Amino acid sequence: MAIDFTLDPDVEELRLRVRAFVDEVVRPADARIGDLDRVDERDEYVKILIDLRVQAQEAGLWMPHMPKEWGGMELGHVGLAMVQAEAAKAQWGPWALNCMAPDEGNMHTLLHWATDEQKERYLRPLCEGKAMSCFAMTEPEVAGSDPTLIRTHAYQDGDEWVISGHKWFISNAHRASFAILIARTEDDPDIPQAANTAFLVDIPSDGWTEVRQIETMHGSTGHSEIRIEDLRVHQDQMLGGRGQGHLLGQARLGPARLAHCMRWVAQAETALDMMVERSLDRYAHGSLLAEKQGIQWMIADSAMELYQAKLMVLHAASKIDAGVDFKSEVSMAKHFVAGMLGRVIDRSIQVHGALGYSTDTPLAHMYQHARWARFADGADEVHQMRIAQRTIAAWKDHGSTRTATGDLPL
Question: Where is the Acyl-CoA oxidase/dehydrogenase middle domain (predicted)?
């Protein structure tokens, strides 16, 4: 039997090292950061964050997703799932290990699409932790889930491209030193998916204006609106080929969606741990909450959903590592795990009562962030549409839907 859910000893040892690092180094730093006024004590805030990365590098826990020649740990996606699921149990864990979004996905993109010169200029500073980046695709005027509708336009002028348009919800743009920008370069492509091209844009640049950081449910923390007006980039700053922006974006988003799921599993597990701990500590109406059937059902539902989520993430990661088609599995995992995250956190808040609704625990903050998961990197409904299309196609091709449900041997 080839199915085995145990880990190689080296991966298990790594998982435990990451867990210890998060408990002993990252969590205390999280607490110190939480006590700071980030305006008046910004220098101390930055010092703590930089120190986290220094300690991660010294501990040999730097960039689990990147090849060794770029300073990384060269883990496959199954191994990465182990690391991300431990790192994300603290707010700044993925940051400390330099494997947080959107930089993680941008590193993969540059590794596979950039020229040697572009890698030295843009990828190396990311890998060294000296720069941050953003991925500028979404626009307010058109549906973000359909990149063929992008209106940001670029035309060639000699050795340069001139770009104008409007982007928003560009995560990390406020702190980024460069962007991977998706713009329409082909007015009459053979297929709609061949209209866009990716460009590398230095920040700041003339013609790139950050209008604002958009206020969201969890505050104004780095999702920016950008105006692009006659922005000029050299031909050498095209990333990939002309008309390959859609292909590049989809190649980036598949593994990135699964990396989000890995981190969301960690958040859900934290919420479930807190739910159970609270139920064993709180006494009401003659018994502990843990002894009440209504609470037990919430715990049971959360445990079952988390189990499903872990299996889906591991299976999708194994398919990526095997080099086979993983689009359906990642799409199903992204849809399910995003919903599971919100439900488990919501139940944990309910068990905590007013305490859970306060900011005395991390649950309120986690809940605010969790709502974003159901439309980031593809709205629930778009994933459902694609899943249905692939299921119907599987039946048409094979007379069975089995290949659309994981293509598993049962």
Answer: 134-230
What the block records as the tokens of 39 is 């305006």
**How far apart are alpha carbons 173 and 175 in whole angstroms?**
5
pLDDT in tens, 287-318: 999 999 999 999 999 999 999 999 999 999 99
Single-letter code of the amino acid located at 390: R
Q: Report the distance separating Cα 403 and Cα 383, nearest Å.
A: 17
Tokens of 24: 């002993």
Task: Please name the residue that has the structure tokens 């539902």.
Answer: 301
In this predicted model, what pLDDT tens digit does every residue of 134-178 receive, in sequence order? 999 999 999 888 889 999 999 999 999 999 999 999 999 999 999
Do the beta carbons of residue 210 and residue 260 sit within 8 Å? no
Q: By C-alpha distance, which of 240, 242, 220, 199 is closest to 368? A: 220
Instruction: List for the chain the helix, strand, coil content (%; round to 5).
Output: 55, 15, 30
Rg of the Cα atoms in the chain: 22
Cα–Cα distances in Å, from 267 out to 214, 228, 408? 24, 36, 28
pLDDT band at 116 (very low <50, low <70, confident <90, very high): very high
| Euclidean distance between CA atoms 389 and 385, whole angstroms | 6
Q: Give me the domains of the chain, ranges plus CATH numbers.
A: 9-100 (1.10.540.10), 133-239 (2.40.110.10), 253-404 (1.20.140.10)
- The set of long-range contacts for 23-32, using a CB threshold of 8 Å and a minimum separation of 24, is 25/52, 25/55, 25/56, 25/59, 25/96, 26/52, 26/87, 26/90, 26/92, 26/93, 26/96, 27/90, 29/92, 29/96, 30/90, 30/91, 30/92
Strands 133-136 and 178-184: parallel
Q: How much is the pLDDT for 103?
A: 96
